[in-house]
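Help! Submission page says 'invalid entity' but I think these are all valid:
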Amino acid sequence: MTAMQDTAVTGRARRGIPDRYKAFIQQGMVVLVLIVLVIFFTAMKPNFASWGNISSLLLASVVTGVQALGLSFVIATGGIDLTPGLGMAVTSVFGAVLIAQQGGFGLPMWVGILGCLAAGALLGLINGLLVAYVKMQPMIATLAMMMVCWGGALVLADGRTVSLRSIEGYDQIAVGQLIPQVPNGVLILIVLAVIAGVVMNKTAVGRYALAIGSNEEATRISGINTNRWKVLAYVICGLFTGISGVLMSSRLSAAQPTLGQGYEMYAIAAAVIGGTSLRGGRASIFGAVIGAVTIQTIFNGLTVMGVQDQWQKVVLGAVVLLAVYVDIMRRGGKEE
Amino acid sequence: MTAPGTEAEPAPTGRAGEILLEADGVSKVFPGVRALNDVSFTLRTGEVHALVGENGAGKSTLMKILSGLYQHDGGEIRLRGERIVLPTPLSAQQMGISVIHQEFFLMNHLTVAQNIFIGREPKTMGFLNDDAALNRQAEELLDRLGVNIDPRARVSTLTVAAQQMVEIAKALSFNSSVLIMDEPTAALTETEVETLFRIIGNFLSPTTAVVYISHRMEEIRKLSTQVTVLRDGEFVATKPASELTIPDIIQLMVGRKIASDIRPEPRASTEPILEVKHLSTAPLLKDVSFTLEKGEILGFAGLMGAGRTETARALIGADPMTDGEVIVGGKPVKITHPADAVAEGIGYLSEDRKRYGLILNQDVTANTVLASIPAFTKGGILQDGKMKQVAQKWVEVLRTRTPSVNQRIRNLSGGNQQKVVLAKWLERDCDVLIFDEPTRGIDVGAKQEIYDLLDKLTDEGKSIIMISSEMEEVLRMSDRIAVMCNGRITGFLDNSEATQEKIMELATQFSVIEDNTSEVQS
C-alpha cells in the first residue's frame, strides 16, 4: 500500500546479474576452461594441436557426448540413469549379432542399426517404467538394469567379441569422412546435439522434463501426466545409448560385450562439467557436448604428455569436483 | 519501553513474576515489508503469555527473532535484564529458549530418547553410546512431564500429539526457561489438548515461562495469564487475561468491528456447475457433498485439519478418493489424475504455492503457460514469442508486479506469485477455480487486490471454491459457506445468515448426529 510495498514487488534478482545472463556466463566459463586446457597442452607438447590429434580426440568424445545428450533429459527430470555404459555394450552386441556373418544372422546392415536403436529405446522404456510407475529410486533401478545389461551382453555375444569387419561400409558410419578431415562420428554428434537442443529448449518434452525436475508435484497439479513424460525422458536416454552403441561398434568394427563399463560415469561427468544440475530442473545440451570434449581433452593431453592412465582418472575426478564446486559457488552456496 | 499493565517490581531470583525475557522496541524489515515495528514484549517467570494477532500481525516473526532464526534490525532483546544476541537457533537453545514449531524437527526413524539427546548422547568409555543411560534419562524427563511415552519407541510410530510431547521433553532436557509454542493445538484432538495443557502446567515453575501463540480464543482464555496483541507488525496491548473477554481480544486483534455491511450482494444463480456427492477418502473425509453454482464463491470454513484441503485435493484427483461422484456441468465425470480435472476446467491454487503451484526456478512466462503447453506448440515447436505475449497480457490484466515476464518466479513477492498461478489457470480457461487460502503469506495491501480479483472473476462467470481459515475473509467474500469439521461438512450457511459464532459452532461440531450429515444441502 505504501511506497515500501512497491519496492517489494519489483523482485530484483539477487546479486545484480539477471538470471538469464548467468546461464550464458556459466556456459562461457565451461568453454573457457576447455580453451585454457588446449592452450596448456599445446604449450607443453605442440604435437597436441595437430589436426590429426584433434580429430582423433573429437572422435573419441563422440560416444560419451552422445550418451551425455540423452542423459541430460533424465537428469533434467531429477533422475539418473546408470545404464548408458553397459547399455552401449548390450545394444551394440544385439545389433552386431543381427548382422554379423560369423556368429550372427547376417541380416542387412540397416536392420542391425535399427535393432541397436530399438534395443536402446526398450532399455530406456524399462528404466522409465520402473522409475515412474513402479516408483523405484532411479539410482537403484538403473543400477540393477546396468547389471542386467552387463550379463545380457555377455550372453548375447556368448562371451566373445563379435567381429563386423566383413560388413562393408559399417566402419564408415563413425570413421568415414563425408567432409574431408572430419570423422562422420563428429558430424553425427553435432547433428544430434542440435536436435537434442531443439527438443530440450523448444518442445514440450524439454519443457515438461525441466518442470518435473524443478517441482514434480506442481507440474502434476498443473494437469500434466508427469509419469508419462518421465518415461519419455528415459526412452530418449536409452535411444541415445543405442546410437552410442552403433557408433562404438562402427569405430571398432566389432561389438565387445565387455566394453562400456565406466562409460556411464564419463557421461554423467560430461553433463556435470557442462553445467547440468544433478538436482534436476536445469540442463545444458551445449554444455554436455563441451563436457565430453573436455574429458577427452584431459585424457588425450595427459597421454601426449606421458602421464599414466591411472593418474588421468585422478585428474578427471578432480575436474568433476571442481565443476560441482563452481556450480555451488554460482548459486551462492544455497539450495536451488 | 515496557508494555502497559506489567509494571510490577522485579521479584527476587527464583520467584514468579520476575522479568525473564524482554523484547524492547524490536523491529524487523524484510525487503519491502515492515514485519515488526517497534514491538515490545515482556515475559515474566511463572506465566503463560499468549501472543495473538491475525495472520501477518508479526507473531511468527517475533517468535523467530526470539529463537535466533531471524536477526532483528532495531531494538534489543534482554534475558534476565542482560542484553543478548541470538545469532543462531542453537545459541537461543543454549541460553534456555526453546521453540516448539508447528512442524516438528524430529528424526522419524530414531527413537524418542535418541531424538531428545541427539548430539548429546551419554557415553561410556568416552565414545560408545550408552543406550541404557540414554533411555533412563529420557524416561526421567518424560516422567517429570507426566507423559506416558516409551523412550525406546520410534518417533514415526507416535501420534502428532506424542511427537509434540517429545519436543517439549527435549526443551526440558536443555533446562530451558522459556518455551515458545507456535499454534501447538492446531493438529490435536480435544483430549490431547487437555493433556498438553497439563504438561504445560508441569513445565511451569517459578523460574520458567511459556509464550503461547494461538488463534483459539477459548484456549487463550483458559491457559494464559497475560495476553499481548500484535496487529500489522505493531504492538497493540499487553493485558492480564482475566481482564479480557474473547470479543475484547478479537477487537484488539482486528482493530475494528468485523463489519457485516461489506458483504457482497447475494448472487442469484441456480445453475449448478459442479456437484460433488458422497466424496470420501481414507482416512479423513466422510461423505462430503456440495454443489457449486455458476458465478458464486463458495467459502469453505473450518479448523485446521478439518479436511478442506483434502476435499480439494481428492476432487482434482491429486489424492485418490475411496468413494464419491463428481458432476461437472450436469454430466458425471471420472477424475483420477489432476490432468482429468484440468480437462474438465477445474484449476486448483494451493495454499502452498511454492510446493504445489510454481516452478520456482523458471520465469513468469514458463509458469503462466505451464498448463497450456499444447496450445503453444506448432509442429512440435514451442512458440516463444506467443508465450511471452500471453504472459505479458496476464501480467497486465492481473496487474502482476514484475520487471518483465522473463523474471524468475522466486524473485516475486507472495501476492504476485499467486497472480501468476491464477494466470496459469485463466490461460487454461478453467471455469472452476479452487483457491486454497488465497491470501496466505500475502501482505495486507496485496490481499485487497486478490479480493477484488475474486469478485471480478465471478462477475465474469467463473465459479470459485475458496478455502480459508481467516474468518473475516470467509464472511466477506463468500456467497455461501460450507463449514467442515473432522472430515465432514457440518453445515452450510448463506451469506446473509452467517456469523463468526455460527461458523465456529459448526466448525467445532465434532460429534455429528448421524442422520443429518449427508443430506445437508443448502
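Support: the input was valid. A stray whitespace character was the problem, and the output above is from the cleaned input. Residues 30-40+51-325 of chain A form a domain with the ABC transporter involved in vitamin B12 uptake, BtuC fold (CATH 1.10.3470).
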